[in-house]
Amino acid sequence: QSALTQPASVSGSPGQSITISCSGTNNDIGAYPYVSWYQQHPGRAPKVLISDVSRRRSGVSARFSGARSGETASLTISGLQAEDEADYYCASYSGNSTPLFGGGTHLTV
Amino acid sequence: EGQMVQSGTEMKKPGESLKISCKVSGFTFKNNWIAWVRQTPGKGLQWVGSIYPGDSDIRYSPSFQGHVSISADMSTTTAYLEWSSLEASDTAMYYCSRLVTGTTYYFDPWGQGTLVTVSS
Lengths: 109, 120
Hints:
By secondary structure, chain A is mainly β. Chain A has strands spanning about 10, 20-25, 35-40, 45-50, 55, 65-70, 70-75, 85-95, 100, 105-109. Chain A has a single domain (about 10-110), classed as Immunoglobulins (Immunoglobulin-like).
């Protein structure tokens, strides 16, 4: 299976909102409500932000929100802060006990 | 929430064998899927495979099937990722993570990562 498609980079100014897209197919994002999003700072392990398309995990700021439309999922970060500068990855279940990751998006604030 | 602590950095030569580990604490080892994820600069995150220690059910990504082996020791609550013959292309950071499933599907928590470098 091919990886999910994310833009390589996005940027925004402090206080603004940005949205990162994650495109899949009707075999993964379009088929299952199991999209998750991860934040990774340099030299650190990924950390889950969102599961099940739009469920914020414990301790995650309400500035982070997830959505899905058809075969595309999205992560929106509102009120950008300098600490949000990081790499962001989407993931989806794709059937047969197989998860797929996106290629990652670097956010510059 | 649990914790996953991985073994340290490895530097190996092509053709050598390697087994890296992931010690789990804070959640029931045998009743959770433990996944291995590879990270390279060029390809981001890739799922390598997962094991369910309770019944030793193992799933591999087609991209890694036959090149790596995943195992688990319930007595020490440790999962392993093993190579019998390393290649330069295995150079990467490898993470273990709990794959939470059921009515949901996501990875949490994550180990700190094990850097594997394969070079002659």
